[in-house]
Amino acid sequence: MTAASIRARVRAEMTDEIKAVARRHLATDGANLSLRAVARDLGMASSAVYRYFASRDELLTAMIIDAYDALGATAEASVSGSGFTDRFLNVCHSVRDWALANPHEWALIYGSPVPGYQAPRDTVGPAIRVILVIGRIVGDASAAGEAAAGEPITGKLGDELAYVAEQAAPGTPPQLVARAIGAWIHLCGAVSAELFGQLNNTIEARREFFELQMRGAATLISRPL
Q1: How far is CA 50 from the centre of its chain?
Q2: Residue by residue, what is the 3-state secondary structure of the chain?
Q3: What does the alpha-carbon distance between residue 99 and residue 172 come to, in Å, rounded to a whole number?
Q4: What does the alpha-carbon distance between residue 186 and residue 219 come to, in Å, rounded to a whole number?
Q5: Closest Cα partner for 140 from 69, 85, 73?
């Protein structure tokens, strides 16, 4: 192993350790991260941490990308089933299961915006991985006749949806993609409502209630308005 490869491995290990400590801070401080606090927990001078992450925002970006990628990989691995509804529900449950296991990471990417933080373009690809999974499922459903397109959508909205459809599910009718986006918003809202305590003292059969909602979302996608 060359000296350069050893340095690269040590840097990668240190970077991972910094992010691991920062994730623990999410549990207590939310996204109000402090590089000084992270350095203190690592027993390092704050100047040493700045050699790995130039700012709090750079560390936040790395953590956001990691969270999106972890969620995306989970959703991608969950696609199974013989029909549209089964495949869609499996992805929805995988998203919920990941969120329940990683509540602070979910809050980081789908909770309140971090004051003063502007996500860079680097986050876009990881952020849309789950959306692309759903787009492929919807595209397959459209091709198999499991989801009807419905009336065309015209005007500016129609143009925007046509562009999104071409990027996320080529060949899929834009109006069907519009309903899929609505279902995705429903999915995120259902997970966040449960995770952030909106169902407390109201619904205890959480998984069953979530499935009921997601079956409704599947119906929203597959049947034209």
Answers
A1: 28
A2: CCHHHHHHHHHHHHHHHHHHHHHHHHHHHCCCCCHHHHHHHHCCCHHHHCCCCCCHHHHHHHHHHHHHHHHHHHHHHHCCCCCHHHHHHHHHHHHHHHHHHCHHHHHHHHCCCCCCCCCCHHHHHHHCHHHHHHHHHHHHHHHCCCCCCCCCCCHHHHHHHHHHHHHHCCCCCHHHHHHHHHHHHHHHHHHHHHHCCCCCCCCCCHHHHHHHHHHHHHHHHHCCC
A3: 29
A4: 12
A5: 85
Question: Which token pair is 155?
Answer: 């005007």
What pLDDT is recorded for position 3?
A: 66
For the chain, the average pLDDT equals 92
User: pLDDT band at 180, cuts 50/70/90?
Assistant: very high
